[in-house]
Amino acid sequence: MRLIEAAVVSGLLTLISANAVGNPRPKNGNDRPSCVSEVGEGEYLMSNPEGAEVDCLFLANEAGTLIRLRQGEMIVQRETGILMHGTARIYTAGIPFSIIGDQAHLIEPDDVVDVIVEGDETLILSKEGCTGVTACFESEKHKKSYFLEQGDLLVLYRNGVVYAWEDAEGNSRISDGCSQANSQSARGFLWFLLLAVLLRLRRRSLRA
Questions:
Q1: Which of 16, 98, 113, 130 could form a disulfide with 109 if both were Cys (CB 3.0 to 4.6 A apart)?
Q2: What sign results for the dihedral spanned by CA atoms 127, 80, 117, 186?
Q3: Radius of gyration over every alpha carbon of the chain, rounded to an integer in angstroms
């Protein structure tokens, strides 16, 4: 399981190059149009198409919160980001910064977190340090909190139900009788992401 997860994250979040850091600029050194646009006072839209050759980078605040968007769309403010869809890695450098996944679940990392919003699922990997997650159910009054240690992987449905929760060794942290089924579902989800990465890399090699 962890080998699959590592391959997925490595493929999706490879450190390739920067596009926009700080205030958005019309062009970068490669004459690529900026992937960051200002949509309101102190509010920015990061956008990177699927299959983009480079990641979109944006420094969210002076404290040093760095957003790396592999693909998808994310709205960023000084202390909050909303990942609407796609794949992002957030480096907080210990500075408080909240990410809303799928416009529902609140994610609060201590250091570095990977977030993927794909279909009805939000995948959260506490890459470095610990991460707090508040899952919001369809009823706004019903919420559940999770504490992810470094290396923990949590997958949530859009409605707040847990898809899977595993530690760094791939062991399920769900104690109810559905843990095995949830774990198998998560493996299927990650296999899907891995296949997408491999197909993308194959297309790039054919174009090269």
A1: 113
A2: positive
A3: 17
Say if residues 110 and 131 touch (Cβ distance below 8 Å).
yes
Check: CB of residue 97 under 8 Å from CB of residue 81: yes
Helix (H) or strand (E) holding 203: helix 179-207
Q: For 123, which DSSP code?
A: E
Rounded to two decimals, the pTM is 0.72
**Using an 8 Å Cβ cutoff, are 14 and 50 in contact?**
no
Q: Summarize pLDDT for 105-159 with one digit per residue, the tens.
A: 999 999 999 999 998 899 999 999 999 999 887 655 678 899 999 999 999 998 8
Terminal alpha carbon distance of the chain? 31
| CA distance readout (Å), 72 to 82, 115, 124 | 11, 11, 16
pLDDT at 11: 43
Taking a C-beta distance cutoff of 8 angstroms, is the pair 92, 110 a contact? Answer: yes
Cβ neighbourhood burial of 38 (10 Å; 0-12, 13-18, 19+): exposed
Structure tokens that stand for 90 in this block = 């957030």
Location of structure tokens 């859009």: 158
Positive or negative: CA dihedral 180, 181, 182, 188: positive
- 23: phi then psi, degrees, rounded to nearest 5: -70, 145
- Triad 22, 81, 191: Cα angle to 5°: 110
Q: What is the CATH number of the domain that holds 145?
A: 2.60.120.1440
Q: Which domain holds residue 96?
A: 2-207
